[in-house]
Design brief:
Largest sheet: none
Strand content: under 5%
Number of helices: 4
Number of strands: 0
Radius of gyration: 14 Å
Structural class: mainly alpha
Length: 84
């Protein structure tokens, strides 16, 4: 879903591999990278403290701690491709 979001949003992304989530979050906190995809349980405390800003959640499933966030699909204006 991330690459679809990037394409729909018209942004070019250079993927930087990190060795695990702690290193990835540290890369964001130290401004080595501009954005990451991470689990709510990892980033929610950092968002709540103001150290990070959440832009979207990966999907439309309910996430009480991120209820106000759009899904990546919604943020990029992508059509809903779920089958009924």
């Amino acid at each position: 879903m991330g690459w679809r979001f990037h394409r729909a949003a018209g942004i070019e992304v250079l993927y930087v591999p990190f060795k695990g989530t702690p290193a990835t979050v540290n890369g964001l906190l130290t401004k080595s990278v501009d954005m990451i995809y991470a689990a709510n349980v990892i980033v929610n405390p950092l968002v709540a403290s103001g150290q990070l800003r959440a832009l979207a959640k990966m999907d439309g499933r309910p996430a009480p701690a991120a209820a106000e966030l759009p899904s990546l699909r919604e943020a990029a204006g992508l059509p809903d491709r779920r089958r009924s």
